[in-house]
Design goal:
It is a single chain. The protein has five helices and no strands. The chain is an all-alpha fold. It is globular and about 40 Å long.
Amino acid sequence: MKTYPLHVGSLVRAELYKQNKTVTWLAQQLGIKRTNCYRILHAQSIHTSLMEQLSIAMKHDFFIDCSSQLKQNAN
């Protein structure tokens, strides 16, 4: 079975879309520039403290998403 690398930016991007929020909104929540927010959305990995900030801002636990995807890839 082929495994796919975890891509945190894709998880964040999908949740942002699901919540019907904009990149501008997320950038404001995080206190960063919109261009830096796009870097997050395209990053394969991010620091755990940033993931915590994203989880709080979006009221969504991205740690669970990452864990679930890793379990799927392991099977």
